[in-house]
Amino acid sequence: MEFISHPEGRLRPVRIDTTQAISIANLKYIYDYFLKDHLGSVRSVLTTEQQTDFYAATMETAAAAKEDALFTNVSATASAKPSGMTNDNNNQKASKLNGDVSITGNKRVGPAIVLKVMAGDTISLSTWSWYTGAVQPPASGVADIATELLPLLTGGVAGNGGTHGGAIPASTSDPLLSTALSHFLSNNRTYVNTRPKAFLNWMVVDEEFAGVSSPNHLGATQIPVCNAGDTLKAVAGPVNMVIRRNGWIYIYLSNESAQDVYFDNLVVNLRHGPLLEVNDYYPFGMQIPGLSTQSYKYQYNQNRYKYNGIEYDTAFGLDEYEAHYRDLDPQIGRWWQIDPKPDYGESPYSSMGNNPILHNDPLGDTLDFPDASPEFIGQFYDAFSYLDAHGVSDVLTNLQRISAHINVRFLIEDDGNTLPSEYNPDDNTIYWNPMNGATEGSVTISPATVLAHESDHALQFKTHPKQYAKDTDPKTGADRQYDNKEERRVTTGQEQRVARALGEIKKGQVTRRNHQGHNTRVSGPTSTQSVSEKNMFDLLKREQEFKKLNPKVLPQRKIPCIGCDGPRR
């Protein structure tokens, strides 16, 4: 199983010990959260996972194969350590660089690495350097160092997804990277001629291949002075630098002076932030590859629920959205199957009413939301997803399958008084408020459960109209306890089943034993917590945080009115 869906995102299982097989004991679950737009399209994915990647170029023979796979110019510049560089007997090799590349065998660009970074990532860099003898000036009569750096940079960016699946050709990216590199070399490295022109360099470029101008994102640290008798000296790069833009960081060692400079133990520490994915779409759901990006993480399965919250399938090169009832081709903005509830004023293959900016259709067979706000439609599908994740969306699903259209409208309050949700067969409409639960005694059911209740009435009316009429008739359907037989059927059946699946009632409990109860203002379509209760807990939490920061100060507190907006708990 790749993930478990929940209303706000997903649970993603990952192995605790990656060297061991998958087992219950060797799994932990990571929460990923989806940030959606007004159409329900996933625009960003955030995670609670904390992951740090550690990269090291030691130049030692035992680690050469692994380091060559991660870095460039490791084995190509590795050399036996010279006398006087270090007293550590375990350290046998270092990267030897010399700026006079007119001499065969000399290299002026050492170990280098390009890493994908996302906004919010944190990075730290360090290395060690050593030289001996008098300081020499930069080599003359040699080509500009940019001629060596550019192929390494462009190749590294392309290898880390910089071409966005081939959507951006090298003919477009190379000139942009060349400009960014030239600006970096000219403006972001301070050279002191009393030391070799040798640096630990780092350069962050964004998704448009431009250098990021945020503080310290383009920089270099020149190596320190080595006097006679000195051993390796530390060269510190940025420490815990927070990346401000999605893109790539290019890290490399260089020496342009005409003398040998040795670098050892280049270390890169990349701590991933919460941002995993960024998605941008054309109007009918095709992703814009140049603007969409994702983090590179081990054991990460990319989110496939994208436009309108529909699953995107790339199998067999089809690149289609697989909605609940039919498949959407985002390239032409049309469904592959006809609409089972056609609007004869438009093609049965058209999607989103030919207005994808205003309308969405996450199931491929949408209910009607006359004059509804995007927020209300999003809340409806949040409730549907919540029911679906708990295996109790069958009534709503069956309601979608029938040929008749059902309206869903926001239940407007009457002069500040909260009205109960209802299904009205006269205008074929479910009236529902995504912020109103229902409470009887000590039990509160969520707006999602209320929606399932009213949907069952609508389905019964559409599929069994005679039975519905009989059970709601004051003479043939009267019921002292539940008002009528139809309310008894839904309250004792569908309502109990849904509430139990959602964990709103425990074994042996019932939501209510009649058709009574009062509305409770809750914090969301899937919540059973009253607004007043939430406000009280938020207040207490703020007080606790205040006391931790100010242990000697007692804040003034007003007693919250616990029963103002909801039931007394």
Offer a concise description of the structure.
The protein has 569 residues and is an alpha+beta fold. Helices cover 22% and strands 25% of the residues.
Overview of this structure, please?
- The chain has ten helices and 29 strands.
- It folds into four domains: 4-49, no CATH class; 52-271, Sandwich (Jelly Rolls); 367-529, no CATH class; 531-569, no CATH class.
- The strands form seven sheets. Strands 5, 6, 7, 9, 12, 13 and 15 form a seven-stranded antiparallel sheet that branches. A six-stranded antiparallel sheet has the order 1-2-3-4-16-17. A four-stranded antiparallel sheet has the order 8-14-10-11, with helices on one face.
- The chain is of the alpha+beta class and 569 residues long.
- The chain has helices spanning 64-70, 146-159, 170-187, 374-389, 394-401, 447-463, 465-472, 485-492, 494-501, 531-549; strands at residues 4-6, 9-15, 27-36, 42-47, 52-57, 78-80, 93-97, 109-117, 122-130, 198-206, 218-222, 233-236, 241-242, 247-255, 261-271, 275-278, 293-294, 311-313, 320-322, 327-329, 334-335, 407-410, 422-424, 429-432, 436-440, 443-445, 478-479, 483-484, 518-521.
- Helix 6 (447-463) crosses helix 7 (465-472).
- A hairpin with a 6-residue loop joins strand 18 (311-313) and strand 19 (320-322).
